[in-house]
Amino acid sequence: MGEEKSHYLELSENPVQFEHASSVNNVFFDEANKQVFAVRSGGATGVVVKGPDDKSSVAFRMDDKGEVKCIKFSIGNKILAVQRTSKSVVFPDKRSLKLLKNQSINVNWYQYCPETAVILLSTTVQGNILQPFAFRNGTMSKMSKFEIELPVIPKPAKLSLSERDIAMATIYGQLYVMYLKHHSRTANSPSAEVVLYHLPREGACKKSHVLKLNTTGKFALNIVDNLVVVHHQSSQTSLIFDIKLKEPDCAVNTHQPVLPARSIHPYRMPLAGPAVVPSQPPVPCQLYSSSWSVFQPDIIISASEGYLWYLQVKLHPTVNLLQDKGKLMDFLLRRRDCKMVILSVCSQILEGGDKGSLPVVATVFDKLNQVYKEYLEAEQSYTVAMESGPSRGSAAQKRPVRTQAVIDQSDMYTHVLSSFTERKEVSHKFVIAVLMEYIRSLNQHQITVQHYLYELVIKTLVQHNLFYMLHQFLQYHVLSDSKPLACLLLSLESTYPPAHQLSLDMLKRLSTANDEIVEVLLSKQQVLGALRFIRSVGGHDNVSARKFLDAARQTGDQMLFYTVFRSFQQRNQRLRGSPAFNPGEHCEEHVVHFKQLFGEQALMKPSTV
User: Fold this and answer.
1) Residue 309 in contact with residue 15, Cβ under 8 Å?
2) Does residue 551 fall inside a structural domain?
């Protein structure tokens, strides 16, 4: 596998570009608005603000009143706040401020999570007692404080928890405080780890996950698609962890990296400016540079080069890096853009055509159908709730969101199974085993099997003359009854005569009325089959000749039209002593058509007794 194919992380294709940091240009980042501020000469020669998209770009000037320590906009760029000293913030727009609430607390440093509006304060001499506050609707509420377990307790006590080693992020909809616990020679911990503390809105904050890094050095953290990404500077690689993947051989909630460490995909910076020669190649970007700054959840900024990227996960390279296909499915099903990758994995597993892979196939089908079933149940309960109307005291139910992880029967049929059944080099026994495995899994999850899957089974059996197996499948109701299936069986009558009776038995079991069976057969252009059926139930004398002649003519088969026409002439002769049609039967156009095709002499003559 080429190196190119194994990078499962990449930087966004269209980064936000800004003037790089220099002696005259200071760069700031606002995590709430995701805006980069480039401040030239204290603002006197201009401030350029760039957001996640070009539409949010703003440029202005302000008086140089000293070095800018921090600069931010309020949401919607309405109010600008500038900090030049450690104890004062200036609002260029003159406004009055009102104190809503104050707390007296000694703070070493703080971190703020804009997505959840939670601020985290480091308190005490060692700094490892963290006090969170939540903001909601203009009010501030104190949450439960908690302690970060330090690898070594210093004596005498001193600040031991750095702001650099703490990050807050939402993973799978829950807020976590991530602590980068460095390796300590004295504490007998051979390598660094990331400890996750779950911070609920109500109740105590608990240590919930430990991510084993198996190395030491400088690290930085991102969250992408609910994965914890740990960048390691000295090896210039990154690791990814999925806290929902349970490790069988580890203590509860201790996680190893999902995949081997890999570098972020190489990135080339296009050259810009008037001096650029068109043939000049783009310059490779130095990945994992010491000038990189990492922000939550998925932002990487290179101030020295003037780039802001979003980190992204590429799923295709993960397929060959994770050999355990069950674990791979668990991993993929939780990712955002997973559908086509999952379907390609299903095709890949079937490619070998090996009986030994059936247990793997079964595991994969069950994992997919579990998610499919959960979605169907959520959709059903939503429908029931909507039909019964809103009940008192219950919150309005939201329509379930269909994520890409919902792989339904038409997805499997279209992208995997139909092409798989056509592969000549795969043994037909394996093909049938796989189809039956998928049907078994659907039945096990109480999902109604769509008739086109049964049709695929039948066509495969017929193709390989496995009629005895077809008979058994029908006899033991492995293939569930349905009208489309009955019609398919009828069409097989010429290659397998018992199919006719099997089909009629199925239609009878479905309590189908005789005239409806005729309609079904005619709609499938099974005209002779319909004729034979109506004779077998003794209804031939009363059926509309025109309906059959219409259907026969539509097939474009002249001999079929001849056979059906002569059949009804014989009926007329038997019932009325004349082969002619009565005016009330409206068959005149068919008589004309018959004469045009076969000539007047081909018409049946009245027979005299």
Assistant:
1) yes
2) yes
Domain count, the chain: 3
Residue 556 predicted with pLDDT over 80:
yes
Residue 321 within a domain: no
Return the HEC string of 340-394.
Answer: HHHHHHHHHHHHCCCHHHHHHHHHHHHHHHHHHHHHHHHHHHHHHHHHHCCCCCC
C-alpha span between 569 and 28 (Å, rounded): 93
> What would the pLDDT profile of 476-512 be if each residue is shown by its tens digit?
778 888 878 887 887 787 788 888 788 878 877 887 6
Say which amino acid occupies 443.
N
Do 123 and 246 share a domain, yes or no? yes
* Mean pLDDT score, 59-70: 85
Question: Would you mind telling me the total number of residues written for the chain in this entry?
Answer: 609
Cα gap 268→284, rounded to integer Å: 4
Residues 191-223 have pLDDT tens digits of 899 999 999 988 888 899 999 998 888 999 999
**Measured between alpha carbons, how far is 521 from 433 in angstroms, rounded to an integer?**
30
CB 18 within 8 A of CB 305: no
Q: What is the CA radius of gyration of the chain?
A: 36
DSSP 8-state secondary structure symbol assigned to residue 97: -
486 located within any domain:
no
Most confident listed range (42-51, 332-341, 516-525) = 332-341
What 3-state DSSP class applies to 222? strand
With contact defined as beta carbons under 8 Å apart, do 501 and 528 qualify? no
Dihedral sign computed on CA atoms, order 567, 569, 570, 574? positive
Of 41, 62, 90, which closes a domain? 90
Residue of 64, 16, 57, 17 lying closest to 40 (CA atoms)? 64
Are 84 and 113 in a shared domain?
Answer: no
Phi, psi angles (nearest 5°) of residue 83 = -110, 125
Whole-Å CA distances, 568 to 131, 550, 563, 571, 603: 92, 13, 9, 5, 12
Residue 555 token pair: 């097939």
Residue 238 falls within a domain, yes or no?
yes
Give the integer Cα–Cα distance in Å for 358 and 438: 11
Q: How many helices (H) and strands (E) does the chain have?
A: 16, 27
Instruction: Supply the range of the domain harboring residue 574.
Output: 525-608
What pLDDT digit, counting tens, does each position of 77-115 carry? 888 889 988 888 888 777 777 887 888 899 999 999 999
Q: Which of 460, 511, 469, 468 is nearest to 488 (CA)?
A: 460
Q: CA 409: distance to chain centroid?
A: 15
Q: Tell me if 362 sits within 8 A of 441, measured CB to CB.
A: yes
pLDDT-wise least confident of 5-14, 228-237, 497-506 = 497-506
Yes or no: say if 90 and 81 are a contact pair by the CB < 8 Å rule: yes
Same domain, 66 and 189: no
Helix axes 358-388, 428-444, angle to 10 degrees: 30
Residue that terminates a domain, selected from 228, 244, 263: 263
Shared domain check, 583 and 554: yes
CA–CA separation, 317 and 163 (whole Å): 34
Q: φ and ψ at 404, to 5 degrees?
A: -70, -15
H helices of 408-450, where? Answer: 409-412, 418-421, 428-444
